[in-house]
Amino acid sequence: MWWPAPAEIGGIGEVVETDDDVTVQVTGPPGTTPPPAGAPGWLGEFEVVTLPVRTVFRGDARRSDGTARVRLIGIGQGHARLVTVPPCAAVLEPFRDTARATSPAAAGPLCFAVPPGFRPHYLALTANATGPAAVIDLRLVAELAARSGECTR
Length: 153
Prior knowledge:
Layout: E1 8-11, E2 15-17, E3 22-26, E4 31-33, E5 47-57, E6 67-75, E7 81-82, E8 98-100, E9 106-114, E10 119-126, E11 134-137, H1 139-148
Parallel strand pairs: 1-11
Antiparallel strand pairs: 2-3, 3-5, 4-5, 5-9, 6-8, 6-10, 7-9, 10-11
């Protein structure tokens, strides 16, 4: 699938905003955890990539509802699926592959079920069907830390 270049690209720690005024900041590197307690049984076959995020909806509720489609893009077999059970559902009010930011700002985990061995590279946020409005490159901090000898996980 071809998309135009995103309007905004950032790295971990940087704030990006969609054209529908959803602001997202990934505040740390991605981590991999077992499925959360209370998750559906099928989730046990997957790993869960957790992104610590801070988000806020800064827009006009009459113009937009603060939703954005979120996709985790990476290397590996299969694809990532947004996890919508607590504690992963605490931020962005996830539903299927879309998420709704709130005002005031909220912080917590955003989680994706991924096949074993999947390596996350980008978090893409799309406010409409024209392609990603904002992309966060999840490799930027990890690559810098690897070069300096620091551990990121």
